[in-house]
Prior knowledge:
Layout: H1 4-7, E1 11-15, H2 20-31, E2 36-41, H3 44-56, E3 60-65, H4 71-83, E4 88-91, H5 110-128, E5 137-141, H6 154-176, E6 180-184, H7 189-192
Parallel strand pairs: 1-2, 1-4, 2-3, 4-5, 5-6
Helix pairs in contact: 4-5, 5-6
Amino acid sequence: MRSAAFYAGQAVFICGSTGGLGQAIVHELCACRVRALVLSARREHILQEQRQYAAAHGVEVQICPGDFTDPKVRALAMSMAAAAGCQCLILAAGQVPAHARDSLEDPAAVEQIFKLNALAPLQFLYENADKFTLGTRIALISSQAALYPIPMLPVYGSAKAALSYAVQALQPQFAARRVKLTFSDGPALCRALLV
Length: 195
């Protein structure tokens, strides 16, 4: 992530904040002394734990429980982020499908994996393109699987590859609106976001 000075006093929106990576980002932002966090994810009990953790670090937290593939959840999350003055948004929602080590992904999960890992973040960008204020920075989480095909995760990897491709294609259009889109697909993720 950028230096603590950059994040100090900022309000940041994170979707997908209850997974391992999302929780690590919340903890690092609290250490950077952000002013406020707006957190959206499916697991409300973990959101409540994060609220308590952040409060102990002097950070105000609002939570928006729900599945980011639901347009109503995305709309409410954006409304909350705008009301909190979030100019940093981190779209980290994602899911790796259950699979055995020596088998393919569950075919029933294919649609959900594409919806959550690629379609929902892109829909959020399109739905809110005219609502992002000047200077907004938006980071989307991709994956190493987008770069290096993993035989057991073809659906997950292709969804993340689609997301990476779309973000790169959209960057000039958002830059013209003075909104910076970034994405990370490597292990340096927490140091590269929003640079």
